Amino acid sequence: MAQTTEQKFILDYDEAKEAIAELKRTLINKGEATELFGNEKAGEFKGNLLNIYQSFGGVELLPSVEQKAANLLYYIIKGHHLTTATNE
Hints:
By secondary structure, the chain is mostly helical. The chain is built from three helices and two strands. The protein has helices at residues 13-29, 44-51, 65-79; strands at residues 55-56, 59-60. The protein has a two-stranded antiparallel ribbon. It is elongated and about 45 Å long. The N and C termini lie far apart (35 Å).
């Protein structure tokens, strides 16, 4: 799979939280989630989001959008920083 080398945008914390809130509303309307879904624990999600933009010596540690996305997903799943309560 080809990886992008040009960064098109930086995922803003507020934008990410709004996207999660929109998904939550959709899932609740379908009866597939409860109010507990997507609640952040102790501000850890924001830290995960900031982690994907780290650099060392002026060089990004995760230069492609794909690497950033994969690592963010890994951080969220590994650390359980968002609740995933559903009706099941």
